Amino acid sequence: MKIKLKGKEYTIREFFKRWKWGIENLTPRQRLASKLQGSIGMVCAFIFASTMIYITGTWYYIPIFVFAGWLQVLDIINTWQQYKLSKSIELNIGSTSKTFEEAITEKEEE
């Protein structure tokens, strides 16, 4: 079975080899960016949950919900600050991330 990705076909073994390499070699900035994207999903979940609390009239969940929402807001602020800092550091130092093909060629040359 082959998996088509960006116009190329890969076997399942090749696909998971590339996927594993990609996960292991994420830069801190990429990790923070994906954490921020996940936080957007959490905000949507909080909006949905607050709508359901309003509709069903289960007001006794509000203290738990407010506390969890506050923690989520603090986490988003913290992650955003880390992201901005890592972005400025990467711009000053320069990115050291490599593509999968570059890493494989470098490994074969050794």
Describe the structure concisely.
The protein is mainly alpha-helical. It has four helices and two strands, in the order ββαααα.
Description:
The protein contains four helices and two strands; from the N terminus they run E-E-H-H-H-H. It is elongated. The protein has 110 residues and is mainly alpha-helical. Helix 2 (28-56) runs antiparallel to helix 3.
Spell out the helices and strands N to C.
Answer: EEHHHH
What gap, in angstroms, lies between the N and C termini?
A: 32 Å
Report strand order across the widest sheet. Answer: 1-2
Low-confidence stretches: none
Number of strands: 2
Based on Cα principal axes, name the global outline.
Answer: elongated
Question: Which helices and strands, and how do they pair?
Answer:
Blueprint: E1 2-5, E2 8-11, H1 12-24, H2 28-56, H3 62-93, H4 100-109
Antiparallel strand pairs: 1-2
Helix pairs in contact: 2-3
Question: How would you describe this structure in keywords?
Answer:
110 residues, mainly alpha, two-stranded antiparallel ribbon, 2 strands
